[in-house]
Amino acid sequence: MNLLPSQQQHWTTPPTSHPCSRSKLPALLLVVVLLLPTTSSLRTGPRTPPSVPGSASAAAGNICRGLSPSTSAASPCMLLSWCFSSVARATDNISEDNLLGRGRIGRVYKGSLDNRLLVAVKVLNLEVKGASRSFDAECRTLGQVRHRNLVKIISTCSNLEFKALVLEFMPNLSLNKWLYSQNQCLTLLQRINIMLDVSLGLDYLHHQHPHVIVHCDLKPSNILLDENMVAHISDFGIAKLMLIDNKSTTSTNNIGTVSYMAPEYGLTRGVTIRGDVYSFGILLLELVTGKKPVDTMFNGELNLRQWVNNAYPNAVMEIVDNNILRTDFTNLQQHSDGVDILRRCLSSIIDVGLHCTKDLPNEKLLMRDVVTMLQEIKNRVLVN
Question: Which PANTHER family does the record cross-reference, listed alphabetically (predicted)?
Fold first, then answer.
């Protein structure tokens, strides 16, 4: 401590007018000695107590690792951290009754905080290779982004035996459930709004954030819908952060779902924003047709894009999702040119999807252009 030399000098030369000063010296030295460990602990931070591997109670005793504040693009931002007991309390001891979904590296549970705020708790399976790396990537990305169409991270919990992300809860769950549910149906306007929401989120990641971020795993199950059916992009576990520009040196060894993956990823080692554009284009075509890119009808040389391209522009009504026809065609019949309005709208949307999925990377649209095009399509639908 910087104060020790001056204090010692004062103690060793006490004024003669205070005879009791000499008697206070041992007590003062004792106070200084006792304070030294305290100041050291303040400087180095608290230590995490040891734990017993595989024990829930041991995990509860661990101190959750908070993320250090940093302005570096490669470092996570400051996030509020929870301990295991808080996660267990919120999810009723991670009960299967609260299970919302499962993925390759973990499960998502519905949780409730003391203030009755609902959350989604993503618990990672640390036995799966890459789970810890995925946790760090998602913390790093979600800790830095703020956008209406990106899922928000509330807290994290991390120790040697347990890692979880606490995210905002989306009551309408994933787009995948809406597209392929027998009980739920999306109107054309809802689909356009969802596509516009996703494009706005990607535009922020690609063009508005200080550092270009590539999501790398865009698909219906990673698009979550809130109570107002506003779409939020989720699952940033393999997102890539570009530190210089949109030309990444990051390898493509860990890139999302094959059926949504840009063809160039099989030929090159680099990740670019055009890969997200391709995934978005496939997602858009899926929204219009109601066909998964892995549908059994697609085999050999025929894939979703080729099937749609073969029908464009003259036969788009033959490939459109029947749910769109059921929900929107009745309303459009009130207009003398209602069918033509629907056909033109669908053709415009499909045109965007086909341009997003061009073979050559440089031929693909940028998300800022996609936003403009979809906004124009939405405006025309609202007018009609």
Answer: LEUCINE-RICH REPEAT RECEPTOR PROTEIN KINASE EMS1, PROTEIN KINASE DOMAIN-CONTAINING PROTEIN
